[in-house]
Amino acid sequence: MIQLFDLSKKFGPNVALNDIRLRIRQGEFVFVTGPSGAGKTTLLRLIFGAEKPASGYILINAVNLNRISRPKLDLLRRKIGFVFQDFKLLPRKTVFENVAIALEVIGLRPKFVRKKTHQTLRLVGLAEKEKSYPLSLSGGEQQRVAIARAIVKDPLILLADEPTGNLDPQLTMEIMELFKSIHRKGTTVVVATHSQELLEATDCRTILLNRGKISEDTP
Amino acid sequence: MNIRKNLSVHILSLGTIVASLLILGAFLLLFGNLNNWLQRWGTALSMSIYLKDGISEYRRDKVYSFIRGLPEAEIKRFISKEEALKDLRAALGEDAGFLNRLVRNPLPASYEIVFESKGTHGVEPERIKGELEKLDGVEEVQYSNEWLNKLEGFLNVVRLIGFIIGGLLCLCVVFIVTNTIKLTIYSRKDEIEILKLVGATDWFVKTPFLIEGTIQGISGGVLAVLMLFSGYLILPTKGVSLLGLTPLDFVFLPAGYLVLILILGAVLGVIGSFIAIGRFFAV
């Protein structure tokens, strides 16, 4: 479960998030939407522990991120998959290596890492491209590598920041199906998007952010 | 893998490590050999026993017998008064003219003796000198201890300078490794960030850099030892004459010292990497 209490975040004089109170249950599928600069990315990064709040606190499965030690945060991140808006792929590593790295850092056996990585790449439709380097791929393919890396470890929580931003409508729907299949396994999924098409095609809970505040929360 | 990616930086760093360890090794080689040479030279302790003028044959035989009874002492030469004057005349060369004006020969006759082989440890020159000077007919006894002390003093200064230079070179190596690893870390900043974001522990990220620093240090040590050995083979190292004293035959560093250079390289590499990653990962 993700719980946010009176959460605020500032970047210098700019208020990115202001007094956010939010509860996302285990296994829920939530969209976070809003115009650019509304605070969607910041919200996801705070939940991931990549940013520290100015005030308030975040509980992830009852663990307070304000008080978590560095090693425990590393362990927590192993249970959270994050699809970054800018993909954050390693240009000098192949598609396979980029995905496998999420399992290697956990210290899993190489045989299992290979098997699971192949499986996940097949799932996102990139089995043929596993030896390619990210820069030789299209934007959509890079995005799918980033998604594969986030889901390869079967995370408890999946955070995705504009995961369909570079995809055509057909691929967008395929990726959404992928997220739904992960969600069906019990993963909590939080997707930040400003894609109206995506929101209209789903009946999931939608949180609308505006100027750093929750202006609407549609169950 | 990091080393391949930042080859030029690593070659530069490795070169500096090699140079530093090479200087250190060369110093050890030089100092070790000088020390050995000094000890060997010290073992050939020489002593001059000056006899009183007009000493009787009987007294001289007594002194001779006493010397023969000294362990490890070898009489190199008996120098009569006449021979002493002749030696002096030869040593003075053109300036020897004033010796003609001497009414009598002021130089004493003497025995030149040498204590060989087992080193100065078994011989007590001061005690022997005392005993000899007690004998009737012996005027004075001198031995090469003064020179030995001076040389030992000189070697102590060399040792001190060596420690200071060695320490500075070690600092230099640490500084270089630190900066090379830092450059590598900066060049892989994005990768490190991503690793951290997917849940890598600090040590998962740090360990490759520590290994890299260690490899650099050990490689530097190996290259330095090889270059030192090549230099030893190429340069003249046999029968090197110093201050006209016993010729010095350079021997290469013993295995223990070579291992020490490699360990030192590795340790300095690890310290350098530790400093680099410590600064980078400090949050």
Automatic annotation (TrEMBL), chain A:
Keywords: ATP-binding, Cell cycle, Cell division, Cell membrane, Membrane, Nucleotide-binding
GO MF term (any one): ATP hydrolysis activity
Top-level taxon of origin: Bacteria
Location within or outside the cell: Cell membrane
Topology class, membrane: Peripheral membrane protein
GO biological process terms, semicolon-separated: cell division
Keyword DNA repair applies: no
Gene3D superfamilies (alphabetical): P-loop containing nucleotide triphosphate hydrolases (3.40.50.300)
ABC transporter domain sequence ranges: 2-218
Cellular component GO terms held in the UniProt record: plasma membrane
Pfam families given in the database record: ABC_tran (PF00005)
Quaternary structure note: Homodimer. Forms a membrane-associated complex with FtsX.
Described function: Part of the ABC transporter FtsEX involved in cellular division.
Membership in a protein family: Belongs to the ABC transporter superfamily.
Protein name: Cell division ATP-binding protein FtsE
